[in-house]
Structures are given as C-alpha cells and as structure tokens.
Design a protein that fits this description.
The protein has about 110 residues and is an all-alpha fold. Helix 2 packs antiparallel against helix 5. The two termini are about 35 Å apart.
Length: about 110
Amino acid sequence: METKEAAEIRHLMNDVLTKNGEGARLKDMLTRLLVESGWKDEVNLMCRKVIQERGVDNITTDDIVNAVTPNARASVPAEVKKALLEKIRAALIKELEDREKENGTQ
C-alpha cells in the first residue's frame, strides 16, 4: 500500500511531467535515445524471433508483448536510463524551487 507521502510525490511528479509539455519532451528524448542506442532494433528482432518460434498464425499481439517485455525492459541501456532519470530529477528540482519562490520560503 502506498503511503500518503509517496502518493503526494507521485502526484507532484505527474504534475511536473504534464506541466508545459515536459512529459512529451521526455518521451521524445527517450524515443530518440532508444533508437540511437539500437535498442529499438534489438526489440524488433526479439519480436521477430518470437513470431518465428510460435508461428504467425498461432500468436497474438498480446502474446508477443508478454514474451518480449521482460527482456526489452532489461535491455534498456544504462546510459539511457541515467539520462532520463537526470532529466526527471532536474524537472522536479526546478518545480520545487519554483514553488518555494512562489510561497516565499526560500
């Protein structure tokens, strides 16, 4: 069960990421980094392998997603995760600083 503090932090994060299109910019950055790193091509190959193993007539999109997702998530390059985390952290810090200035508590 999520604590009240964790729920507040999650709410703040959602606010920050939707404010001024920050979430969309982060999504675009993530997509670009994943393509540049070759991750997208790697996942594409994983999907093709699953389809070949099970047969195109014997598999659904959900089957492919369920088979590939764990390996796809695990194979996201560390530098991509780090870059995204840094951008999220910077956006949250900026938002907290802005709120402190608005409230005159700095």
